[in-house]
Amino acid sequence: MLGCVALLAVVLSSCSEGQARMAASVTGGDPNRGSAAIFKYGCGSCHTIAGISNARGLVGPPLTGIGARMYVAGVLRNTPDNMVRWIQNPKGVDEKTAMPTLGVSQQDATDIAAYLYSTK
Fold first, then answer.
1. Which of these, 27, 38, 65, 79, is most buried using a 10 Å CB contact count?
2. Which long-range contacts link 61-65 to residues 24+ away (Cβ below 8 Å)?
3. pTM for the complete prediction?
4. How far is Cα 55 from Cα 67, in angstroms, rounded to an integer?
5. Does the domain made of 31-118 have the CATH classification 2.60.40.420?
6. pLDDT tens-digit profile of 67-113?
């Protein structure tokens, strides 16, 4: 039984690593830097984000599983470029959004997108 549990842990961790590699490949960002940028910009103040401690905000929608959603912010087709665009300039996409423009750099937005796409 203990061997099965250990095997399951290895399989699950490799899935996470595979998901992170795929997200990095698709976005050109780094999920590890993305998690640091999420903390830096305080994204968890408004959003619940899987894998980010203290990211339990309820102002904005939960970002868990955002990679599988059809749209970003309900208006943009969910692509890495559109995710980065939204993160950098939400008011430029939807002037009525409650999401503030935080001055997120191109690299940080790309890394945040990579992190978000790496989560399930």
1. 27
2. 63/116, 63/119, 64/119, 64/120, 65/119, 65/120
3. 0.82
4. 18
5. yes
6. 999 999 999 999 999 999 999 999 999 999 999 999 999 999 999 99
